[in-house]
Write a structure and sequence with these properties.
The protein is mainly beta and 179 residues long. 8% of the residues lie in helices and 69% in strands. The protein has one helix and nine strands; from the N terminus they run ββββββαβββ. The chain has one helix at 115-128, and strands at residues 2-8, 17-34, 37-41, 44-61, 67-84, 89-108, 132-144, 150-162, 167-178. Strands 1, 2, 3, 4, 5, 6, 7, 8 and 9 form a nine-stranded antiparallel sheet that branches. β5 and β6 (89-108) form a beta hairpin. The two termini are 34 Å apart.
Length: 179
């Protein structure tokens, strides 16, 4: 991915675009090994997909030697359970449980002169350079209204515990209609 930087005039009376240039590049390289196990019984289906992944992420500005680079190893499993309760009701659980280990982290922010931007980049680097354990899960309940329409509710939880014992938790409740 690349990003374009846009420069405008400082004149508050007339805001005019002066220049656009490609000045940001983000690359991600992944190598993933995964296997899949599936078990069906009556109206239930359980699948487990353990995996191992290596990832290399690089972000850099093209006009300066400002960059950050991370190499990660992930070990985890994706779990899906679907149960048809009756003709009109289905409940399902999808989760991804994994551990991320940082195998290498580099950065150079010396070209950044604005203190607030420099602080933001260092905070971002500190978070991305920590090992973590994560649980991402979503519980879904579907009610079929007719042959083409169903109502659904999803409760999602994302929990990320970092190596410094800080935890980020996000929950979401979604209610929708599928046509």
């Amino acid at each position: 991915k690349s990003g374009i930087e846009t420069y405008y005039t400082n004149n508050t009376d007339i805001l005019q675009k002066l220049l656009e240039k490609e000045n940001y590049k983000h690359t991600t390289n992944n190598l993933r090994f995964q296997t899949f196990f599936n078990y069906k019984r009556n109206k239930a289906n359980l699948s487990i997909a353990p995996y191992y992944r290596q990832s290399k992420n690089t972000e850099k500005r093209l006009d300066q030697e400002v960059f950050q680079q991370f190499n990660y190893s992930f070990v985890g499993a994706e779990l899906t359970y679907v149960q048809q309760l009756n003709k009109t009701n289905i409940i399902s659980l999808q989760s991804n449980i994994y551990a991320r280990k940082v195998t290498n982290a580099n950065s150079n922010f010396s070209g950044i002169t604005k203190a607030s931007i420099n602080e933001w980049l260092h905070n971002d680097y500190n978070v991305q350079s920590m090992n973590l354990f994560a649980v991402d899960a979503a519980l879904r309940y579907d009610v079929k209204m007719d042959t083409k329409t169903s109502l659904y509710t999803i409760f999602a939880l994302n929990l990320h515990r970092f190596s410094n014992n800080n935890t980020n938790t996000q929950t979401a409740l979604t209610v929708g209609v599928a046509f």
